[in-house]
Structure formats: C-alpha cells, structure tokens
Amino acid sequence: MEAGEGTELLVHQGSLVLIPMLTGLNLEFQERVENRQKLEFNKMKDEREERHSQVLKPRKEERVIKRKMLYYLKTVEERLNRLREEE
After folding, report:
1. Could you tell me the superkingdom of the organism this chain comes from (predicted)?
2. Chain-centre distance of CA 8, in angstroms?
3. How far apart are the C-alpha atoms of 66 and 54, rounded to whole Å?
4. How many Å apart are CA 37 and CA 26, to the nearest integer?
5. Residue 18's pLDDT is what?
6. H helices within the chain, ranges in order?
7. What's this model's pTM, rounded to 2 decimal places?
C-alpha cells in the first residue's frame, strides 16, 4: 500500500462523512434563515397594522362624533317642530 493510495482512500472516506454533515448544516442554516425571514415579515406586518390603526382610529372617532352630533341636531329639530305645532 502506497502513501498516495491510503491518503486518497482517507480523503474519499472523509468526504463521505462530510457530505451528510454539510447537508445537515445547510438544512439547519436554511431553516434559521427562513425563521428569521418569517420573524422579520411578521414584525413588518405588525408595524404596518399599527400605523394603519393610528391613522384609522382618529377617522373612526371623527365619524362617531359626527354621527352623534347629527343625531342630537335631529332630535332637537324634532322637538322644536313639535313645539311649533303645539302653538
């Protein structure tokens, strides 16, 4: 057995061991990347929803106030009309 043949065999056997290890590491790395991307996406989604709610909440409050004001004005107007009819 020559030194070159033995070394070649060891490298070849080592390659067989390293290939599954590298494949496992690549899968683990890919999973970590995917998890990080999902976290970032969810964070951006939450931030977007928060901004939307900050914009929409005052608008909704304005609509509610306007609706209440219109209702109040309508009831006052009806009361005045009834008083006029009674006179």
Report:
1. Eukaryota
2. 52
3. 19
4. 16
5. 53
6. 3-86
7. 0.48
Instruction: Compute the distance between CA of residue 55 and CA of residue 53 in angstroms, rounded to an integer.
Output: 5
Backbone phi, psi, residue 2, to 5°: -90, 160
Residues 49-79 have pLDDT tens digits of 999 999 999 999 999 999 999 999 999 999 9
Residue with tokens 């929409």: 56
In terms of residues, how long is the chain? 87
The answer for 2, left when phi > 0, alpha when psi is -120 to 50, beta otherwise, is beta
Q: Which two tokens stand for residue 58?
A: 């005052």
Place of tokens 């900050």: 54
Q: Which two tokens stand for residue 21?
A: 């290890």
